[in-house]
Amino acid sequence: MNQEVIIVRGNNTLAGDVAVSGAKNSALKLMAAAILGQGTTVLHNVPLISDIEIMSEVLERLGATVVREGHTLRIDTANVSSFETPYELVSKMRASISVLGPLIGRFGQAHVAMPGGCQIGARKIDMHLVGLEALGVEFEVDHGVLQATTPHGMHGTHVYLEFPSVGATENMLMAAVTAEGHTAIENAACEPEIEDLANMLNAMGAKVSGAGTSLIEIEGVPLSSLHPCEHTTVGDRIEAGTFLVGGALTGGPLTVRGIDPAFLRMAIMKLRAMGCDVETGDDWVRVSRTEPLSSVDIQTLPHPGFPTDLQAQFMLLAALADDVSVITENVFENRFMFAAELMRMGADVTLDDHHAIVRGVDQLEGAPVSSTDLRAGAALVLAGIVADGETQVHHLEHIDRGYEDYVGKLASLGADIRRVPAADAAR
Ligand code: UD1
Question: Ligand 1 centre and the CA of 54: distance in Å?
Fold first, then answer.
């Protein structure tokens, strides 16, 4: 458990330029895909965050070697000989189950511990299994471990996913690249990170088309024709969106660099609807605001809808807007824990099932608060930057999972922020 806290002094402005890191949700899956390369894959623009360390451990347990040089990872999977991922790692990070598809693709079998419940809803894996079963994978659960086998090989198939699940789409994609024949995934997730994964798989010799749309097609190739590759991770749209919210809250101008603005279309639309000026370039987005924040209704949806991973940050904006906003969470159950912490800072939020009714207030007050999950933690720090007085944010292990040097980047934008041992903060 991380024994540090972030202390932030409020009534501050964030302005200037900040470079976003590579996307966590891409890099984790690219690392898993390296299993299919059977040699040394080189990944650039990998963020320095704890989830990446856990995925490195997952790969090392399988027999891979992972060497980090700054933001570059060299992953040698030539000697992967085990296909087991224990509960100890899956319980630390649910995304560990992304090794399921590539392990099946490479060995025709995998033993991966079933992920447990998660703080942001049930997060089942039924759709992962439906997709893989359609390819010919057979599953048994033995003492909490999912055992996958392919007694009759894997054959191309046509699957219509019940919901465009990111993880299910990725696992099926990574297994189908070595299935015999043609596979079509309809109602596939369209997230930019899936396109990034498909681009890497194609650089490894796979034949994937349509990634980034709701119809992904795969022509299976023999495992022997897949090879390692060198690939650069796309920028993190959620980190970018988080900093843009910081600029929108305090007026900016704040520019995020290293991000394709097309990844953020819906978030940019909502920022404009709230009264912000947003400019975009090839790989940057700039936000500024001179007018009061206007209230706005938001509903989270799979991409290209509004991302659930920016819901907490936009709830914070809505909490300081001029009227009532309704925020509807459609992707995850129980993703409003953030609201309770924000209310401790003076926000006026009423929860009704998967709706949050947010009545704007003039000012938030600094308070000790706890990160309840990754995005909530990042949003609470931003709340502290505009609140009156001092805010202490606890449980930084959540923020560390997904934000590289969050404190350093915010300080470079002008925040009065520091990270100290919890014992010092208590004095
Ligand atoms: C990924 C992202 C996460 C993001 C989410 C939605 C990673 C590591 N995480 O999570 O940051 O918030 O996409 O954009 O990439 N579901 C089922 N059965 C399944 C699979 C999913 O019921 O088999 C449900 C989940 O419980 C959830 C919803 O579908 O309610 C969305 O899940 P999914 O799109 O799979 O998200 P993740 O891949 O877990």
Answer: 19
- 12-27: b (≥16 Cβ within 10 Å) or e: bbbbeebbbbbbbbbb
Q: How many angstroms separate the alpha carbon of residue 302 from the centre of ligand 1? A: 9
pLDDT at 2: 47
Protein residue closest via CA to atom 25 of ligand 1: 123
Which of 51, 53, 58 lies closest to 25 in space, CA to CA?
A: 51
Cα angle vertex 360, ends 358, 361, to 5°? Answer: 130
C-alpha 125 to ligand 1 mean position (Å): 9
Whole-angstrom Cα distance, residue 125 to residue 270?
A: 31
Q: Mean of the per-residue pLDDT values for the chain?
A: 95
Close Cβ partners of 352 (under 8 Å, ≥ 6 residues apart) = none
Q: Which two tokens stand for residue 77?
A: 């999977």
- pTM: predicted TM-score of the whole model, two decimal places: 0.97
Residue (of 176, 92, 178) closest to 128 by Cα position: 176
Distance CA 351, CA 6 (A): 27
* Contact residues for 137 (Cβ-Cβ < 8 A; gap 6+): 104, 148, 149, 150, 154, 175
In this model, does residue 202 exceed pLDDT 80?
A: yes
| Ligand 1 nearest atom to the CA of residue 126, by list position | 23
Is 308 a pocket residue for ligand 1 (Cβ < 6 Å)?
yes
- CB of 331 closer than 6 A to ligand 1? yes
Atom 12 of ligand 1, residue of closest alpha carbon: 309
Helix (H) or strand (E) holding 390: strand 390-394
